[in-house]
Known about the structure:
Oligomer: heterodimer
Strand content of chain A: 25-35%
Shape of chain B: elongated
Low-confidence stretches of chain B: 99-104, 172-199
Number of strands of chain A: 19
Number of strands of chain B: 1
Number of helices of chain A: 8
Amino acid sequence: MERPETSDEIDDVAAGWAARLDARSLTLEEQGDLELWLAGDIRRRGALARAMAVMEHFDRARALGGGGLPEPRVFGLQRRTFLRVGAVALGATAAAVGGGVWVEAQAQSYQTAKGEIRGIPLADGTQLWLNTDSKVKVKYRSDGRDVALLRGEALFDVAPDPRRPFVVSAMGRTVRAVGTSFSVNRISGDGVEVQVAEGVVDLGSQRPSQVVRLTAGDRAFTGESGRTSVSRLGVDAVGRAQSWRRGLLDFDGVSLAEAAQAFARYSDRRIVIEDPTVARMAVTGLFASSNPAGFARSAALSLNLKARMEPDAIYLTR
Amino acid sequence: MTPTRERSAWLARHVLPHEPALRAWLRRRPIDGLETDDIVQETYAVLSALASVDHILSPRAYAFQTAQSIMLRYLRRSRVVRIDAIQDIDLLNTAIEEPSPERQTSARQELRRVNELIAALPTKCRQAFTLRKVEGLSQRDVAHRMGISESTVEKHIGRALRVLMDAMTHGGMFEAEASGHQDRRDLRAHGTARDERRN
Lengths: 318, 199
């Protein structure tokens, strides 16, 4: 028997049709294809209706953006940052075509408090994400783009510009990219972790002889001793690990102890597990990083545990 | 028949904001062999096929009731009906009546959330989507500005839309702005769609 189509697969196709319908009128042939597709399963019609609704929803972005609203905060940024998104896209294109003229800029610092996550579009079209309790200093020059990770973890979706290499430094290590997506994490008192989601980066140090090339799906860790180990996580696992930028923690069979540790980065309200058997139990799911209580409750429910809520801690017991 | 643009706008305005609550409600009463995603898609199918929506005073209640009738129809058809599943369904009215924080979402919060979702898109998708939806350029102009073909723009927009559809499903962004409703917040924060699929 044929495997029934999953709702995810239906959504994939529905998104394509919704994009087409939004942009132009369909050709006669396409109209026929669409009718045929819709007739195959009632869920398809629903998925298309929903995709079109999501598209309409984002049309409101324009209506809202131009409505003379009071300055809203966008991840701690002012509204003009939002308006700059459009300009940023143009900037990147212009630079690629015409060479782009870049003005020597002052270094700019960005930071987040514990539990805060910020998305920061940079002037060249690069998207920077700061995880909880993190700080970077960004300096753009005419011949290079330098970012120093002073604390915590950052993710970079780098706009390509071969003339201006993008270099992130942390604890004496440098990560050099041309056009790619990767994260750098200073694990306090421990070392530097680099995860590559897309493209290629070169991991180096002050001594240029030691350069390690990392590709998508790689994780590299450099300890205090300066020794670097590279492991292959796979693109999916890196993507999961980087879902913090959406305010989410994505666990795929991790132990409760590890999950509790992950939440501890975002909140002072700790999840405490004293029983080692409980600590080893595995959880899977997508959770809001700002909500350890919600996580503990779900974990208790699905693993048949008790969650006791105290003001500064949550206890998970059998 | 293809859903009309008017109906899409109505769904975007009156149903989409309640989708996280609807999903949370569905997830709390799992039924073997019936996934939340499937029920949600079928609910949208029913709502998009209605001849008119003028008579619907509370789209939230209507959407919940539609989802409930889809569940009930499925339960009646399945051979083994879990009694507790039926009992749980009686809790529908409580779910509908809960005052929804989404309803109180201000334009400012909505803009913030829309921004967060757009900012999280992959670079090319973000550029194409921003030019098209925020700047309001035609597909042709977007293609021209980005130096790519129109069909590639269409693909980027389609991919962007797919990511946004998923982001709205997870409701992670709704969570970020809820305030003062700890219980409801927990309910939304707990996204187990993947667990269900794996089990």
